[in-house]
Amino acid sequence: MSQVDLNSDLGESFGPYTIGNDPEMLKIISSANVACGFHGGDPLVMHRTLELARENGVGVGAHPGFNDLWGFGRRQIRVQDVGEIEKMLIYQVGAIQGMARACGVPLVHYKLHGALGNMACVDADLAMAAARAIEAVAPELIFVVLPGSELERAGESLGLKIAKEIFADRAYDDDGMLVPRGQPGAMIEDANEAASRVARFVEDGAIQSQSGKRIEVDIDTICVHGDNPSAVAMAAEVRKALTSAGIEIAPMAQRLN
User: Fold this and answer.
1) Contacts of 72 (CB under 8 A, 6+ apart)
2) d(CA 200, CA 74)
3) Over 70: is that where the pLDDT of 1 sits?
4) What Å distances lie between residue 103 and 12, 48, 97, CA to CA?
5) Which H/E stretch holds residue 35?
6) Distance CA 8, CA 170 (A)
7) Which stretch of DSSP H or E encloses residue 208?
8) How far from 162 is each of 178, 196, 247, CA to CA, in Å?
9) Closest Cα partner for 121 from 145, 85, 87?
10) Is the pLDDT of residue 230 over 90?
């Protein structure tokens, strides 16, 4: 039986503002990418999310992004010195390392959020800054990357353990990169469509672009975005489709060890 991890971006609420339905998502997924306070999350949300993950036996990872609560980390921010990004990422990882230790939860992986992740997929300098950040403070963490991206190349060049990720609710271009949000068809809204396509991708060992191009990839983990109003229903359908196809859902660490 083949294995795959199912992950979601969680802990993105802030103060009185609730983003997503984390308690229900944590009953479905096997790994949670927990916001570190810059694009979403705060100390109380982070602590609560980590405790819920522990109670549900879900693996947890750091999910750092741009310092952009107003834009939810989905606006591109340009800097002249990528060293700033490296230090910003180290800061965020340090925050979740401390909280995870306080909760008795092992930190397993590291995945960039939103615009920062998308930019680093195609910018070699930015990707290397992201890889250097985790190498500096937690080189044992699994580096979650888009297959074929600069992030994958940066992680491999530093000898980091890599998890290759595809998205259940996003469309791909012919280069295997995500179609930018806002473009027609970028988001897969229908839960049944998302579930059937992702099960097909895992069985086939390849993704399909919007134009129909087949792109062979290794698939270690699948993301369903947790901030989508239909996220819980979509995650449930994705899990059901995978298990019906004989694919076991397993936490990232188990999948890669």
Assistant:
1) 12, 39, 40, 114, 227
2) 29
3) no
4) 18, 9, 10
5) strand 31-35
6) 13
7) strand 206-208
8) 19, 26, 21
9) 145
10) no
Predicted pLDDT of residue 229: 76
What value does the mean pLDDT take over residues 23-52? 97
Q: Which helix (H) or strand (E) holds 207?
A: strand 206-208
What letter would DSSP give residue 17?
B
Residues 165-219 pLDDT 10s: 999 988 999 999 899 888 888 888 888 999 999 999 999 999 999 999 999 999 9
Residue owning tokens 């988001």? 187
Domains of the chain, earliest start first: 3-256 (3.20.20.370)
SS3 128: helix
CA distance 8 to 222: 8
Closest C-alpha among 136, 144, 150, 176 to residue 163: 144
pTM exceeds 0.90: yes
3-class secondary-structure state, position 3 = strand
**Spatial CA neighbour of 173 closest among 160, 183, 165:** 183
Report whether 179 contacts 170 (CB < 8 A).
Answer: yes
3-state secondary structure of 74: coil
Dist CA 224 CA 66 (whole Å): 20
pLDDT above 90 coverage of the chain, percent: 86
CA atoms within 13 A on the CB side of 203: 13
Task: Find, among 61, 75, 56, 24, the residue nearest to 226 by Cα.
Answer: 24
CA distance 185 to 197: 14
Residues 6+ apart with CB under 8 A from 45: 11, 12, 13, 14, 35
Structure tokens at 181: 């949000």
